[in-house]
Amino acid sequence: MPIDREKALTAPPSVREIRWTTRDVLLYHLSLGAGTDAATDPELHLTYEKNLAVLPTFAVVAGTGISAGEGPAPGLHLPGIDVDLRAVLHAGQGLDVHRPLPASGTATLSSRVAEVWDKGRAALIVLESAATAPDGEPLWTTTTRIWARGEGGFGAGPGPDEEPTAPDRPADTVLTTATTPQQALWYRLNGDLNPLHADPSFARSAGFERPVLHGLASYGLLAKALVDGLLDGDVTRLTGLAVRFAGPLVPGESLTTSVWRDGPADDGTEGLLLHTACPERDGAPVLTHAKATVRP
Fold first, then answer.
1. Count of H helices and E strands in the chain?
2. Contact of 75 with 128, CB cutoff 8 Å
3. Tens digit of each residue's pLDDT, the chain (296 residues)
4. SS3 (DSSP) at 133
5. Catalytic, out of 24, 29, 118, 197
6. Which of 24, 29, 118, 192 is catalytic?
7. Domain-by-domain residue ranges, the chain?
8. Which CATH superfamily is domain 173-294 in?
9. Is 192 among the residues known to form the active site?
């Protein structure tokens, strides 16, 4: 069935309740390498439940971890959109945090199709989810970009042009992040059990030499690198992060993130422009069109 853009954009949002516990948060942090150097720095603010801080990117897995139980298999069930899941790629992720995330809690998550663009050979589906705390105040808003191959041609516009964000000048800072061979095995316990990240034979059938790391794991690793390398370990200073997923990363490879300061905004935050690559593969891009907002 072709994409019905009008139906997708005018459908009422889906609403559900989510919950998470400190165990979900601790597992998320460990899956991003927190406490790796436990002998010299156990990173107790991320690895110990006493005075536990929460990396803001935990929002993208909240409600899907060990506390969620064995729910139904994930899928793409959207009004007006009937696409072949084998042709779907996670193309990008954005996050705006409206207040520090609690180490445990509940929220109401409201999700909708925010936009559908016709790219000719593919459709670009933009999903928006907003989490609200029990007191009625907003917690976070996420934007997920889905690339559906072969689903274009339904008559909508292509959307705005997207220019790379990396400036044509030397980076102000370069951050390096290591990963471990078992990183994907840890990260999949946050809820994404796709065998692409664990089963070598499945990965080969999908065209990869071996299992690859989740895109959202690279996203979380970038957030932790910014917090550790630029924000003095204060997770509350990172208030926004948006990226495009440009290429895979094999567990055990590393990431180098170039950072350019983009000046202050009217609300007092500072913008950062980012580009993350894999040095083991001659600087192949992993995360591009990347921007962060941070508090001073």
1. 6, 10
2. no
3. 578 899 999 999 999 999 999 999 999 999 999 999 888 889 999 999 999 999 999 999 999 977 776 554 445 678 888 877 677 889 999 999 999 999 999 999 999 999 999 998 899 999 999 999 999 999 999 999 999 888 888 888 888 877 777 899 999 999 999 999 999 999 999 999 999 999 999 999 988 999 999 999 999 999 999 999 999 999 999 999 999 999 999 999 999 999 999 999 888 999 999 999 999 999 999 999 999 999 99
4. coil
5. 197
6. 192
7. 173-294
8. Hotdog Thioesterase (3.10.129.10)
9. yes
